[in-house]
Amino acid sequence: MSKRVVFGFHKRFKLSTNHGAEDIMRNQVVEEKFVEFCKKWVTQLDENLQLLLRASREQSLNEAEQQALVSRMTTHIKEYYTVKWAMAREDVLVFYNPVWISTLESGCFWYTGWKPSSVFQLVESIKKKREVGPRLDDLTELQAKKIDELRLRIRLEEEKVDRDTERQQVTLADRKMMELSRLAARFRREGDSTSAGSKHVDGLVGIALKSLMNGLEKVMKTADCVRLKTMKGILDNLNSKQSIEFLAANSMQLGNV
């Protein structure tokens, strides 16, 4: 969903009601809390990455030790989404216009995060890598086949998210919702914010906004679930050593959360 569409409509509704200042304050609080969390999360991510890189170079780790490293990183990734979902309940719009990602990462933005299909491009690039670093040049034919099948399934799920988002945009452009916004704005312009009619319209605007936010939160969570399913699907088809190599390469792409 276009950030311009989402924020344009939300701004129009906010300016039409008495809740604009409260919304802005809540947005700032959620944003500051998540930025602070991200700083600590990225620091821990880098520590985990160094462990993965060291493990990918060493041959002395046994299966249990390798699995422990994989589990440590996947648990860290899940923590990101747990916190994200909790804060999105307070203000989901923060995650549609994040200040904690770079301009380059923003260009690859897909519904509050990275696009799942990009991971398969990463797998291909690791397989072809020849210099020192994580690589996956020992994938078996069966592994490659299963990962390709996963890629096709994930593409279908991405398309479903796109369709769900299109339905959200249709709702945003609904004539009744736009008329409601204009009515609320007219009451404010005329200084009539205490009449029964104004309060009734204000209440309807609040209901419409809540419905909009719930829809955006649902799209975000659905997209996040596809991201997590992609990661799990790939790891399920790799052995411990390959999983370490994949997670190390994935962690180097800071936008992949």
From TrEMBL:
GO molecular function: sequence-specific DNA binding
Pfam entry (one): DOG1
PROSITE patterns: DOG1
Superkingdom classification of source: Eukaryota
Domain DOG1: 31-257
One GO biological process term: DNA-templated transcription
Listed InterPro entries: Seed_Dev/Stress_Resp_Reg, TGA_domain
Protein name: DOG1 domain-containing protein
